[in-house]
TrEMBL record:
Organism: Sulfobacillus benefaciens
Gene3D superfamilies noted in UniProt: Cyclic phosphodiesterase
SUPFAM superfamilies the record matches: LigT-like
Top-rank taxon, per record: Bacteria
Name of the protein: 2'-5' RNA ligase family protein
Pfam families named in the record: 2_5_RNA_ligase2 (PF13563)
Length: 196
C-alpha cells in the first residue's frame, strides 16, 4: 500500500463514520478552524481533530496484547513535526469532504507503514484503498455544495496557515460508536523523545 493520494472510497461516507476502533494522531487546530470543523463535520462531536493512522483497528478482546505491542512499536519511533500542505477534498456521491492535507515526510510514512506491517490482520480501511492520503477532516458538505461555506473554509485556512504545524508525540487507540457522544481512549502510546 502506498502512502500518497487516497482514491475514491467504496463506502459513502469516508473514514470513521461507523462503529469501530482506530489509531489516530490527535492534533490541535487554531480556534477558527476548530469552530468550522465543529460546524461542518458531524463526526467532530465524537472525535478530536486528528490524522487517521489505521481504521478499523483491532477488536477490544485483544486489547491487552495489542496495547503491549503498540507501546513497544510506537515507543521506538522518534517524535517528529508535520505541517499543512494544501486544502483538498474527496468527492463522494452525496457530499464533498474538505480536509487539510499534511505534507508527507519520511517519518510519517515510517509510522504508518510500521503499524500497518505489524498488524496485517487489520488492513487499513479494510483494504478498500490502494493509496491513502494523510489528512485532517474539516467539513462534510452535502450536495449541492454551499459555495459561501467553502469560501469561508478557504479563507480561514489561508488566515491560519502559519499555525498549521504540529509536533507529533503520540498515537491514540480510540473506540467510536455511532450515536454515542465522544470516543473512548483504549490506549495512548508516546513516541520516543527526539534526541537533542
Amino acid at each position: 500500500m502506498r502512502l500518497s493520494y487516497w482514491l475514491q472510497p467504496n463506502n459513502d461516507k469516508g473514514d470513521l463514520n461507523s462503529d469501530g476502533n482506530a489509531l489516530i494522531i490527535p492534533v490541535a487546530l487554531p480556534e477558527e478552524l476548530e469552530t468550522l470543523r465543529l460546524q461542518g463535520d458531524p463526526a467532530a462531536r465524537q472525535l478530536p481533530a486528528h490524522i487517521t493512522v489505521h481504521f478499523p483497528f483491532a477488536d477490544e478482546p485483544k486489547s491487552k496484547v495489542v496495547n503491549a505491542e503498540l507501546k513497544k512499536l510506537v515507543g521506538r519511533i522518534e517524535s517528529f513535526s508535520i505541517q499543512f500542505d494544501s486544502l483538498g477534498h474527496f468527492d463522494m456521491p452525496d457530499e464533498v469532504i474538505y480536509y487539510l492535507k499534511v505534507l508527507i515526510i519520511p517519518e510519517l510514512v515510517s509510522l504508518f507503514h510500521t503499524i500497518w506491517n505489524k498488524f496485517p490482520a487489520y488492513p487499513p480501511y479494510e483494504g478498500k484503498h490502494d493509496t491513502i492520503i494523510p489528512h485532517i477532516t474539516l467539513a462534510r458538505y452535502p450536495r449541492p455544495i454551499p459555495e459561501e461555506r467553502v469560501k469561508q473554509l478557504e479563507d480561514a485556512v489561508s488566515r491560519n496557515r502559519d499555525g498549521l504545524r504540529w509536533d507529533i508525540s503520540e498515537v491514540e487507540w480510540i473506540n467510536v460508536q455511532r450515536g454515542v457522544p465522544g470516543c473512548r481512549i483504549l490506549g495512548s502510546f508516546p513516541l520516543k523523545k527526539k534526541k537533542s
